[in-house]
């Protein structure tokens, strides 16, 4: 298990973050685990950004406070556990200086295998995870709370998710090929090219792709392109120029990049970078998806 950890403890202050890959048998389903625990830090509002992964969170000490969901029609709420589908607008997450839990990044094409339903049923919404996984969730949360350290917590997640996985819950291979092609291209492939990749018509691909991922191919391409751009924007101490970033990530120009950031992140690229802080700090925020994009889902 590869882990990355940071810890800063002062008088009344705890600031921990741990990143780990799941067991090899789980990697077709889960990209990474992220454990976090903070105490005595400044209260904040964090944006949970669109990404190519579903969000599965089990809190430890205090619940998750969602001030605004990707779907504005969904009212704010408090969650001990949360399962959220792919989305194209930010969530707003608040904390009073304390937050703790484990976030699991789930590949969208693994939704059937892990949760027994297609990803479209979770698209754009957040639900208590026990509504989908039943008694497994409160039992697993109790075990995580009682665990001695992060390594033990991640091992518990490995065991629980391996037991929950249904190998028969596979998606059509054509959808898997289309998703992988989109990821490899960084969201650059048009729908017509994806249709040729699958042998389906563009209309049939759009319908099946949306059912299995929760997004249309065009919307998924936007999210994948945006996810790559924001990671590149924070990959080094000296961010690339926005015009260079736009060209590298397949946007028409810098103005196109800025419009997409406002739509998907709620602010312009420079304003988002200034508000969120450096990459290492963002790693501690739930739904942050910090770090380099994980390896592709294998169909």
How would you describe this protein?
Helix content is 39%, strand content 21%. It has 2 domains: 3-168, Jelly Rolls; 173-272, Arc Repressor Mutant, subunit A (Orthogonal Bundle), CATH 1.10.10. The strands form 2 sheets. It has a 7-stranded antiparallel sheet. The protein has 299 residues and is α+β, with helices and mostly antiparallel strands. The protein has helices at 111-115, 130-133, 136-146, 150-164, 173-185, 191-198, 202-213, 217-233, 242-249, 254-265, 269-276, 279-282, and strands spanning 3-10, 13-20, 30-39, 44-48, 54-59, 64-68, 77-79, 81-84, 91-95, 99-106, 126-127. Mean pLDDT is 89; it is low at 279-284 and 289-299.
Question: Briefly, what is this?
Answer:
The protein is an alpha+beta fold.
Question: Secondary structure elements and their pairing?
Answer:
Blueprint: E1 3-10, E2 13-20, E3 30-39, E4 44-48, E5 54-59, E6 64-68, E7 77-79, E8 81-84, E9 91-95, E10 99-106, H1 111-115, E11 126-127, H2 130-133, H3 136-146, H4 150-164, H5 173-185, H6 191-198, H7 202-213, H8 217-233, H9 242-249, H10 254-265, H11 269-276, H12 279-282
Antiparallel strand pairs: 1-2, 2-3, 3-10, 4-9, 5-8, 5-10, 6-7, 6-9, 8-11
Number of DSSP helical runs: 12
Main CATH class of the largest domain: Mainly Beta
**How much is the radius of gyration in Å?**
19 Å
Task: Give start-end ranges of low-pLDDT stretches.
Answer: 279-284, 289-299
Please, what is the average pLDDT?
89
Q: Which series of helices and strands comes N to C?
A: EEEEEEEEEEHEHHHHHHHHHHH
Largest sheet: 7 strands, antiparallel
Beta-strand content: 15-25%
The chain-level structural class is alpha+beta
Shape type = globular
């Amino acid at each position: 298990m590869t882990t990355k950890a940071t810890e800063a403890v002062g008088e009344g202050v705890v600031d921990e973050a741990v990143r780990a890959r799941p067991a090899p048998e789980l990697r077709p389903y889960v990209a990474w685990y992220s454990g976090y625990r903070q105490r005595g830090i400044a209260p904040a509002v964090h944006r949970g950004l669109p990404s190519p992964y579903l969000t599965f969170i089990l809190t430890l000490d205090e619940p998750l406070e969602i001030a605004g969901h990707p779907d504005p029609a969904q009212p704010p709420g408090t969650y001990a556990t949360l399962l959220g589908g792919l989305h194209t607008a930010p969530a707003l997450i608040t904390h009073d200086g304390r937050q703790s839990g484990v976030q699991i990044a789930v590949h969208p094409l693994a939704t059937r295998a892990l949760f027994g339903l297609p990803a479209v049923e979770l698209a754009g919404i957040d639900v208590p995870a026990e509504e989908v996984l039943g008694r497994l969730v409160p039992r697993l949360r109790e075990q995580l709370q009682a665990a001695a350290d992060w390594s033990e917590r991640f091992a518990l997640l490995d065991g629980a998710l391996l037991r929950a996985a249904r190998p028969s819950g596979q998606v059509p291979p054509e959808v898997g090929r289309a998703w992988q092609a989109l990821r490899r291209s960084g969201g650059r492939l048009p729908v017509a090219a994806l249709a040729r990749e699958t042998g389906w018509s563009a209309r049939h691909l759009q319908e099946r792709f949306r059912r299995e991922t929760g997004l249309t191919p065009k919307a998924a391409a936007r999210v994948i392109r945006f996810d790559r751009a924001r990671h590149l924007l924070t990959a080094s101490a000296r961010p690339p120029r926005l015009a260079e970033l736009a060209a590298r990530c397949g946007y028409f120009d810098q103005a196109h990049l800025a419009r997409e950031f406002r739509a998907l992140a709620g602010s312009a690229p420079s304003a988002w970078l200034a508000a969120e802080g450096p990459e290492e700090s963002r790693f501690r925020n739930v739904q942050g998806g910090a770090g380099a994009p994980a390896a592709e889902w294998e169909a």
